[in-house]
Design a protein that fits this description.
mainly alpha
């Protein structure tokens, strides 16, 4: 773990300034850096998984329109794209690849939906369930779902671009205290000696660290809220709209209903 490199750096800094504070700061900073790197890794996995769901929808549409059955289309798409195994999850990918042999495809897709970035797979599972029950409209429903998921990804990229300036400002504010210490040392004020070797300096250092941490947490939460609000509304629209339209369209086309029972489809359409 590269974060552990902070510890020898802290030891060297402690020896240079003759104070244990740098070692303590390095030890405390390891955990936040580990969490930050884990969040970055999770976010990257979520982006790849969301893209894989879109590619899966697009591949299924192409195979279905070429005449393949849903199970055959899913088997061919999963066998053609090796990246799906890592992006969608090993267990879910194995189940999806076994679709021609009776695997429960909606259940496998819901496994993907439980992972970060896989929320679109829940709508895909609903489309698959509706198309399998009614026998019609699956390719059209998946095409609409792929368009909705692309719009969701475009919105997320637009929001990330607009918030890039806010993140840069937050990072600049985080390093300003370090720049102030360097400026004081350049002017001959010896700020580290005051902060690390006097009671008043240690108190000011502790208060400054707490205020800095609170400010970073506050600004980070503002950025996350600004980023998550529109994205959640778009996700709800994808989940409630794409396959809901497919369900209503299919029940109109199939007057005997999804299970072959007379009157079932008519009652569903009336509801």
């Amino acid at each position: 773990m590269p974060e552990l490199a902070l510890l020898p750096v802290g030891l060297l800094a402690a020896h240079a300034v003759d104070s244990p504070v740098p070692v303590l700061a390095a030890a405390v900073g390891v955990v936040p850096l580990l969490r930050w790197r884990a969040r970055r890794r999770t976010a990257e996995q979520a982006r790849r998984r969301a893209a894989a769901v879109i590619d899966l929808c697009t591949g299924l549409v192409g195979e279905l329109r070429s005449g393949a059955t849903p199970e055959q289309a899913l088997h061919m798409v999963m066998g053609r794209e090796a990246a799906f195994r890592s992006d969608l999850g090993l267990e879910a990918s194995a189940r999806l690849a076994a679709a021609p042999y009776g695997a429960n495809v909606p259940a496998a897709l819901r496994l993907v939906a439980e992972l970060p970035g896989g929320r679109g797979a829940a709508a895909l599972a609903a489309c698959w369930q509706v198309g399998s029950d009614s026998g019609t409209g699956l390719a059209h429903g998946l095409d609409r779902l792929a368009d909705a998921l692309r719009a969701e990804r475009a919105l997320a990229e637009e929001i990330a671009g607009e918030l890039a300036g806010c993140r840069a400002t937050t990072a600049l504010l985080a390093v300003l205290p370090v720049l102030a210490l360097l400026l004081g040392a350049a002017l001959g004020a010896h700020p580290l000696t005051t902060l690390l070797h006097t009671p008043a300096g240690l108190g000011c250092l502790a208060a400054g660290v707490l205020l800095e941490a609170a400010g970073l947490a506050w600004t980070s939460r503002i950025v996350r809220d600004a980023e998550g609000g529109p994205r959640k509304r778009q996700e709800r629209a994808v989940l409630s709209g794409s396959c809901g339209l497919t369900r209503r369209r299919d029940t109109r086309r199939d007057p005997v209903g999804s299970g072959g029972r007379p009157g079932h489809g008519h009652a569903g359409a009336e509801r």
